[in-house]
Amino acid sequence: MAEVSEEAIRAYWKEHREQLRQCETQRSTLTNLLIVITAALSALIVQQRFSLYVLPLCVFISMAGLYGAVTVSKYYERASYHLSQARALTRELTERGVLGTDEKLVQARADHYLAFPRMHRIRLHRLWVVLHLAIGLYGLSLLLVSVAMA
Description:
Protein name: DUF2270 domain-containing protein
Number of strands: 0
Transmembrane segments: 29-46, 52-70, 127-149
Shape: elongated
Keywords: Membrane, Transmembrane, Transmembrane helix
Largest sheet: none
Distance between the termini: 73 Å
Mean pLDDT: 93
Number of domains: 1
Strand content: under 5%
Helix content: over 70%
C-alpha cells in the first residue's frame, strides 16, 4: 500500500474544515429563513385577527420550528463528524512532525476556559435547537389563541 503524502493529508484536512464551515453556513441560512417566514406569517395572522382561516398557518409555523430543530441537530452531527476527521488528520500531521507541538493551543484553551468559566460549558448547538423549538411552541400558541378567539 502506498504511503499517503503530507500534502494529501493537508488537502483532506482542508476539505473537512470547508465541509464544517458549510454546515454552519447552512444552519445559519435555515435559521434566518425560518425566522423571516415566522415573522411574515405572524403579521398575516394578526392582520386576520386570529380567525379560523389562519389555523393552517399556525400549524405550518409549528411544523417549521420542529423541522428546524431536527435539521440543526443534523447539521451539528455533520459538523461534529467533519471536525473529528480534521482533528484526526491534525494528529497524523503532528505525529509525522509536520506540525509542532500543541502546547500553546492547550494553554490558550485553558486560558479561555478560565476567562469564561460558565459560558464555555453552554453548547451552541443546544441554543440553536432551543430557538427552533421556541418557534414551534410559538406557532402552537398562535394556534391556541386563534382557536380561543374564534
